[in-house]
Write a sequence for this structure.
């Protein structure tokens, strides 16, 4: 069977599933002669949704045989073994799916045709459930705590519920892929299945025969004499917005209004302010750059005329190098590279750029040689989280695992800095649990980071844990996050929850 036939049947089967006809889709999938790993995965999902567990197991076996790195197939086969109460085999498959994630928080299968994201926290959720079925409650609790640290969104509240159930030695629901989600063929390949008429129908453009509508091929006809030639439209150079300038020095932005440029870049100046800062366009981005970092560029001379260098006369005086005073920096732009007006040298006040991997990635600028306490307080202020709850790690040369950052390691940390770049990893330590405590909001609170909890004055909040004396973790209106303890007070017994 050709690839075109396989592609056509695959697309037809997916269309049947979208029309809620899984039986026809399964029949079409089974009729495909050369089945790929994705097609076997689709067959297994259809059998699993129809509770035909033995056939689903065989299909997922073949899918894994075709692609041993398909984590979604291991995940689905683990669900199949769980429903067959073969918990040992289910645990092995879930662990193999987690291994295929290779330390990532998720795998997005959308580029491969499956609109699904396999999250590491949900794989660990199922691992904990299988271990609970096997009576390994402590290991189940460990995996769920790891899943709690890996969750990146409030939509994973079922992980918190699972952890509460484990503490009471109770089971909880299994996480499954939604029914109807299948691998789809590449839409560009499917579009090429339709026949296209690239030549089209012939049309008479010019003829000496009046009302000539002949659309086929014919012998050459007499040509008209003295036909006036159409004048050629002169080529027009594209006109860019603004005046072109060449960048002389490298510039690092400090605020979101500024723009990063490198020596040799060509930018277009839209406006030059009185403070000697220029508003420019570069790579379809607009921002501020010091005007004394730029020099005007003659586009017409570059495109139409070769550069001519006049010979230097011995009697001519060599002009002195330009001395331009640096512009006054806007608010929030201190610490960047500037040009000394007297020596014309670039001085670097930027320090070291530290990239911090948390639940999301941030970047801060820290001077070389700072202590561990300064680094921790800087990152704490950036994340708006208490420093006492944060732990920092870094990759030490010659050590496979990440090393916890502390004062004794600072000399090795700063010696490992290359090109003013340092990479750290940050994790948050869970506070003491305060279950079933409810508080009422005295004021409205709007979140400033993804970890914050939004609420309005008068809302009832369930306290999940105490981070420290100033911050609490709680749940309100189906969302989970942290909030200041000074914004709430203890709930009286006569008040009712939302």
């Amino acid at each position: 069977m050709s690839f075109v036939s396989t592609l056509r049947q695959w697309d037809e089967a997916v269309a049947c599933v979208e029309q809620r006809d899984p039986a026809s889709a399964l029949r079409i999938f089974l009729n495909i002669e050369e089945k790929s790993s994705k097609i076997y995965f689709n067959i297994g999902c259809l059998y699993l949704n129809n509770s035909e567990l033995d056939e689903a197991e065989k299909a997922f076996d073949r899918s894994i045989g075709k692609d041993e790195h398909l984590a979604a197939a291991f995940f689905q086969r683990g669900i199949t073994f769980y429903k067959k109460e073969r918990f040992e085999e289910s645990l092995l498959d879930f662990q193999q799916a987690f291994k295929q994630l290779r330390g990532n928080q998720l795998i997005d299968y959308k580029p491969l045709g499956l609109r699904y994201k396999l999250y590491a926290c949900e794989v660990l959720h199922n691992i904990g459930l299988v271990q609970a079925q096997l009576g390994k409650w402590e290991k189940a609790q460990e995996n769920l705590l790891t899943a709690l640290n890996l969750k990146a969104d409030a939509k994973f509240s079922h992980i918190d519920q699972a952890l509460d159930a484990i503490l009471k030695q109770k089971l909880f629901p299994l996480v499954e892929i939604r029914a109807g989600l299948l691998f789809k063929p590449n839409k560009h390949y499917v579009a090429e299945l339709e026949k296209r008429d690239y030549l089209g129908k012939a049309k008479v453009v010019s003829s000496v025969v009046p009302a000539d509508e002949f659309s086929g091929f014919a012998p050459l006809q007499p040509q008209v004499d003295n036909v006036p030639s159409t004048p050629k439209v002169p080529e027009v150079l594209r006109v860019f917005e603004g005046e072109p300038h060449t960048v002389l020095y490298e510039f690092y932005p400090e605020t979101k209004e500024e723009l990063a440029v490198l020596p040799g870049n060509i930018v277009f100046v839209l406006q030059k302010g009185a403070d000697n800062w220029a508003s420019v366009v570069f790579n379809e981005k607009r921002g501020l750059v010091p005007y004394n970092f730029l020099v005007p560029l003659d586009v017409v001379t570059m495109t139409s005329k070769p550069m001519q260098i006049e010979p230097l006369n011995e009697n001519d005086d060599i002009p002195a190098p330009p001395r331009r005073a640096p512009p006054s920096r806007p608010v929030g732009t201190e610490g960047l590279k500037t040009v000394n007006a007297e020596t014309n040298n670039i001085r670097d006040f930027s320090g070291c750029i530290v990239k911090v991997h948390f639940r999301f990635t941030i970047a801060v600028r820290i001077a070389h040689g700072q202590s561990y306490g300064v680094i921790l307080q800087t990152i704490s202020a950036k994340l708006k989280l208490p420093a006492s709850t944060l732990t920092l790690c870094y990759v030490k040369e010659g050590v496979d695992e990440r090393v916890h950052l502390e004062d004794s390691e600072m000399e090795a940390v700063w010696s490992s800095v290359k090109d003013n770049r340092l990479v750290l990893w940050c994790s948050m330590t869970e506070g003491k649990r305060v279950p079933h405590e409810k508080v009422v909001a005295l004021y409205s609170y709007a979140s400033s980071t993804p970890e914050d909890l939004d609420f309005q004055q008068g809302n009832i909040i369930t306290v999940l844990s105490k981070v420290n004396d100033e911050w609490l973790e709680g749940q309100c209106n189906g969302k989970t996050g942290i909030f200041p303890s000074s914004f709430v007070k203890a709930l009286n017994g006569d008040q009712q929850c939302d």
